[in-house]
Amino acid sequence: MHNSNEFKIPLGPQHPALKEPESFSVALKGEKIMGVDIRLGYNHRGIEKACEERTYIQDMYLIERICGICSHSHSTCFIQAVEEIAGLEVPKRALYIRTLIAELERIHSHLLWLGVAGHEIGFDTLLMYAWRDREIVMDMLAELTGNRVNYGINTIGGVRRNITREQAEKVLGGIKTLEERTKYYIEVATEEVTIRKRLSGVGVLSYEDALRLDAVGPTARASNVNRDVRRDDHYAAYGDIRFEVVTDMHNDVYGRTIVRVKELMESYQIIRQVLQKMPDGPISIKAPRQIPAGEALSRYEAPRGEDVHYVKSNGTEKPERVKVRAPTLANIQAVKHMLADRYLADMPIVIAAIDPCFSCTDRLVTIEYPNKRKNEVISWQALHSYSIEWHRSRGIDFRALNKKFSERIKG
Amino acid sequence: MLKEVLNHIMKKPATNLYPAQKLQMPPGFRGKLKFYPERCIGCKLCMRDCPTQAITINKLEDNKFEAVIELDRCIYCGQCVDSCPKKALESTKDVELTQLDAHKLRVVFRAQPENNSKK
Ligand code: SF4
Ligand code: SF4
Q: Which of B10, B29, B49 sits opposite A146 (nearest CB)?
């Protein structure tokens, strides 16, 4: 496949993890990416339509399943819109509990991302470490909400579960361990030469381009765009809480890594404040089954960026229209820009850097030769090992590090 | 980094030896549902709120109801537990629901103990 003829690689389009399935069609000359075409909407799950067929309570659980990782993000974003239409005054304590779960979710999402990023660049030990530590936060979520994923904590007018003193203590304990670990990851990310070399200059997105292409979340913040819905248009309990919005000037995948690991530290601070300031009182108010006619747009800072839900009601038990714009859709245009003029070997990490749950899907690349009838298939694994080999032959190799770690761990 | 490596030399693997070693689910975990037929009044609120239509309440005779729960449809959201005004439903910590036979995932809870074909 390394002849000088230009050919096209379609990547995707199946993408069941997200509402927006993606298909990338990459034009290559040799190993250089000449251009990327992105087509959306292949595997449309029809969630918005399905929402119109169900009651608001049932929609809660459906919306939560748009994404298994941002499930609290979507359900909170949706419910905020519904509560705004119904004019419900959600109790303070419920808002604090929502904030707590939101930050735990961010920690779990960022640790997951760190592991995936490690895997995509061939640094599997990082994956093992990050995912082992992620178990701590997963256990906390199970403890607080009754499930590891799809927490189901929200209900219209509040939350479904209270948290006790002991649970709060447990969370604080877990946070302490995680904070130690995160410090270590920051150290690894900033001091490991191999990581720096592998990620710097990959997937570059300048400040102007980030604004122009409307990037959101860590993708934008790594290009020094100082935007965060939690601060700019605060919801839940974020108005009462002090935190920094982490930005970075590297403009590349390395910057996105730094933003995410530093955001973890902010999340720990937020959780401490939430637990400290959490008022007593009821956790929910009774919500009407029929939501009065009206419409609302709600914004939420999901771990991957700004999430937007629009809900229109018509006075019945079921919404008339629900519209969801998940963060990946906002970041997709930026990916196209980031890939231009890069090497094929960087594709896995550049796509993974916006955190689109790509690992769940899109494991297939087919090569179409424009002049021949023949098509070839490369699996995501093959593309992955190709990327590792490609960088290995240019001196960026995690093999020795991985081996050193695993040998010592085995004793 | 060397410190990290040394730390792990003496440690056991981080994974659990399932199924020999089983994890204890936290209290309040939303596992398999349990139905108390004697408490149910047949209002069917649970049926109405269930997002997946996994639960069906059938009337056997006056004031006697059975619940049929399709465990493979249920998403373990626990909404029925919240909706029930009589606390006739409960989430348990039971998570080991794997079956080779799909029919066994249809669980019927009845009042009479001899017909309690809970599997
Ligand atoms: S737990 Fe949820 S899905 Fe299962 S029966 Fe109850 S309401 Fe239906
Ligand atoms: S909501 Fe409770 S009382 Fe009503 S039918 Fe269901 S189980 Fe019975």
A: B29
